[in-house]
Amino acid sequence: MRGPIVEFTPADFPEGVNENGAIAFLDRDGVLNLGKSTYINSPDELEILPGAPEVVGDLRRLGFRTCIVTNQSPIMRGLWDESQLLLIHQKLRELFVKYDEDALFDMIITCPHRNRDNCSCRKPNPGMLQLGSKLLRMQPVKKFDSKQKIVEIDSKFEAVNWWKEKVSPVNELDLMIGDRNSDMGAGWAVGARLFRVPQSIGIKNVRNRIIDENDKGDYFNPIR
Ligand SMILES: [Mg+2]
């Protein structure tokens, strides 16, 4: 089966900012832009949530790498294809830097599958976060050519034991921001600090928390 779609676009940090080694994993719909039950099907449907670009800019000014991890089942449903996805993401990036020049995304990973495809990348499975963690921290991934901007990776990941304790993260500051249980589950499975935001507000709601190094994030139990 095909793998997730990876847009690998690592960017320089703002002047004077040192990389802190952590990754901010961000859900897309309902966190960065307004989510819709009928999906975001074209660039014109994108509505950026107020304050989102500034928070992404803040994360980069703090030295975080930024990685969007998004489930987009319309692709496997046959509603539209990767080229449409890339147009949507191009517009998203344009809108973000328009509001805040530091609001850049180092990586966007998209799971194209439906529930029934039983993939390891559709959240709450952590495949996209594990992949982003490997690529952004420069551990070589089989078949990945970093000169290519867009790749599909057919990756198999370890099955998650949802009944065990939350694992330790690669970096203590790694975080996952999302509006759904599936986002929290994927973040939990890689040990990230979890921040749940209401879809009506988005990422702005947790700005002060995510930039606080002492905030360990929301409690989440994946089996409840
Ligand atoms: Mg969402």
Characterization of this structure:
The chain is of the alpha/beta class and 224 residues long. It has a single domain (5-210), classed as Rossmann fold (3-Layer(aba) Sandwich). It contains 5 helices and 7 strands. The chain has helices at residues 52-61, 82-99, 127-136, 181-189, 207-210; strands at 5-8, 23-26, 65-71, 107-111, 150-152, 175-178, 193-196. The protein has a 7-stranded mixed β-sheet. Helix 4 (181-189) links the parallel strand 6 (175-178) and strand 7 (193-196). Helix 1 crosses helix 2 (82-99). The protein is globular. 43% of the residues are buried. The mean pLDDT is 91. The structure holds magnesium ion.
Task: Annotate the secondary structure layout.
Blueprint: E1 5-8, E2 23-26, H1 52-61, E3 65-71, H2 82-99, E4 107-111, H3 127-136, E5 150-152, E6 175-178, H4 181-189, E7 193-196, H5 207-210
Parallel strand pairs: 2-3, 2-6, 3-4, 6-7
Antiparallel strand pairs: 1-4, 1-5
Bound molecules: magnesium ion (MG).
Compact description:
With 224 residues, the protein is an alpha/beta fold. The protein has a single domain (5-210), classed as Rossmann fold.
Q: Looking at CATH, which topology would you report?
A: Rossmann fold
The geometry reads as globular
Structural class by secondary-structure content: alpha/beta
Low-pLDDT regions: none
Tally of strands:
7
Q: Briefly, what CATH class? A: Alpha Beta
Biggest pleated sheet? 7 strands, mixed
Spell out the CATH superfamily: HAD superfamily/HAD-like
Total DSSP helices: 5
Helix content: 10-25%
Give the helices and strands as they follow along the chain: EEHEHEHEEHEH
Using the CA coordinates, give the radius of gyration: 16 Å
The tally of structural domains comes to 1
Beta strand %: 5-15%
The name of the CATH architecture is 3-Layer(aba) Sandwich
Strand arrangement within the widest β-sheet reads 5-1-4-3-2-6-7
End-to-end Cα distance, whole Å, is 30 Å
